[in-house]
Amino acid sequence: MSDAQPRQTPRPGLAMPKADFVTGVFLLAFSITIVVLSVQMPRLEHRGINPYTVPGIVPGLLGVALTIMSVSLVLRSVRHGGYRVAFSVDQAAGIARKPVVWRALVTAVFCLFYALALVGRIWYPAATFLFVLGFIVLFEYRFDRPFRTQWGTVLFATVEALLTAAVVSAVFRYLFLVRLP
């Protein structure tokens, strides 16, 4: 006979109550912002638009659905003690050293750069091409290896960026009839 204890697996929903609490609070704030901004969108009454086709209806409904799910997540995490979030400087330093955190931060900065610095300032297909090319090269190219061993990665990124910029621009312009900057 073995003295080893049987391994207990946590019940579904109990594995990460603190992470659920933090995520739920963030999503709740985000979803409320979506609802508020969708209510503030123009209703176009002066054009005789049907009330069920106003521009803010879909984002508003999605925001309400996300609000309901966020409240559910927060309440479930509170029920399991997730609101007791203790955080130390050592924990923060440990989290900041994780590669996944740096990748997420670089992704957020890169996306903000695309949205705030490129779109609207240069031709949309060019902005999208630069964004996709830069994103793929940034995360796929190995800077510790020589270029001659990775030219395929750069070629693939260039082709994918060209195709993405062309298709996205064409879909928005000809299918959705959206004038792009």
Task: Provide an overview of this structure.
There is one protein chain. The chain has 181 residues and is mostly helical. The protein folds into two domains: 1-86; 98-181, no CATH class. 64% of the residues lie in helices and 0% in strands. It contains six helices and no strands. The longest helix is centred in the last third of the chain and has 25 residues, at 151-175. The mean pLDDT is 86.
Largest sheet: none
Q: Which word captures the global form?
A: flat
- Per DSSP, the total helix count is 6
Order of helices and strands: HHHHHH
How many strand elements?
0
**Rg to the nearest angstrom?**
23 Å
Q: How many domain regions?
A: 2
Mean pLDDT: 86
List the helices and strands and how they pair.
Layout: H1 17-39, H2 57-79, H3 89-96, H4 99-118, H5 124-140, H6 151-175
Q: What would you say about this model in short?
A:
By secondary structure, the protein is mostly helical. The chain contains six helices and no strands.
Task: Looking at this protein, list some descriptive labels.
single chain; 181 residues; mainly alpha; 2 domains; 6 helices; 64% helix; 0% strand
